[in-house]
Amino acid sequence: MDVGADSSGTSGPLDGLRVIEIGHFVAAPFCARLLGDLGAEVIKIEPMTGDPVRTWGKARDGRSAWWSVHGRNKRSVTIDLKSAEGRELVLDLVAKSDALVENFRPGQLGRMGLNDDLMRARNPQLVIAHISGFGQDGPDSGRSGFGAIGEAIGGLRYLTNHAAGDTDLPPVRVGVSIGDSLAGIYAALGIVSALWARDSPGGTGQGQPVDVALTEAVLSIMEGVVPEYSVFQAVREPVGARIPTTAPSSAYPTRDGKWIIIAANSAPLFDRLCDVIGQPDLPLDNRFRDNPGRVANVDALDRIIEEWSVTQDCAEVEAALNARNIPNSPIYSAADIAADAQFRARGMLRSIDDPVLGAVLHPGVVPMMPESGAGIRWPGREIGEDTGFVLTGLLDRSAAQVADLKARGIV
């Protein structure tokens, strides 16, 4: 399968950076994937059974389609961290690396014999990024936490619920592990920042720890939720599909059973929308003359828009709105994403050869840096596929030594 620029041989702005990933599930592996996408050499240390995500979601022959993406641009090395020889191999890798990212519960890596002091004694320049549920200190630091817990405590799950009174079902989740991914993004930013602090002119020359909590990663994106409460004692409530401060901006049904987002929330946009829906005098209605009025009367306004949208198929609604340059979009399914011409034109959908699955559509690299050569060098590896390569090529172990370690279950 042709993968275009991904096979160019260039590796991105982080070329020359070596990162060790001792992570599982989502947060730390997502951080490392982002760094690998931008050219870093990522060595993922796994147990003999591999990262559990290898079998999550739709799979073929035990290999998940998600893993093809989640493990891309990484070398997989299996090491038994419970063994002294295994830990020594990790420390040897630490001595030759720039950064390490992990997402165990605080202190667990230390209890395994790989605490920060020991690793930095081997390499004072090492940047160590810790991702955990609640952070490395504080009264809740020992609690376990996954992305869903971070989303709950950070306030996101409260707002992703249906509007009050609509249903008594549990508050809905976003649909992906957004809390984990946010933490991974912040960890990647923290690693790059710590490397700058180490290596920039006037830098310290030393590594430093990076501490990312799932709860705090979610909290940091919550816009005005906390300041509004502190100043006005106002608790922002879930509003379903609407934006509570502006209207119209919601999802509207169409004749073919789809939904389309329409965001006509400025005066010129609203005027044009009224023309499109055959209501040119609607802006003269006292209820809808300005944004505060439209927000106060949003139920009535949305009913008027819905009466128009349900008379046409989604594609017809989209075409009518595009003709007047009114922001809109159908709500995409995976099939819609895969067919999107804009994603394909910008290389955000890339067909990659996977040794088990065949052609797999991967999301592209974000941020896009077209002059850097960042790309997808390979899909997720098999468990331990690169163990021999790393131990012989990087740690100068002989083939006989590697064979012995494998025979004894160390790697």
From TrEMBL:
Is Lyase a UniProt keyword of this protein?
no
Name the EC number(s). 2.8.3.22
Q: Which SUPFAM superfamilies match?
A: CoA-transferase family III (CaiB/BaiF)
Q: Name one GO molecular function term.
A: CoA-transferase activity
Q: Name the top EC class.
A: transferase
Swiss-Prot/TrEMBL keywords: Plasmid, Transferase
Q: Which residues form a coiled coil?
A: none
Question: What superkingdom heads the lineage?
Answer: Bacteria
Q: Which InterPro entries match?
A: CoA-transferase_III_domain, CoA-Trfase_fam_III, CoA-Trfase_III_dom3_sf, CoA-Trfase_III_dom_1_sf
Q: What is this protein called?
A: Succinyl-CoA--L-malate CoA-transferase alpha subunit
Give the organism the record lists. Antarctobacter heliothermus
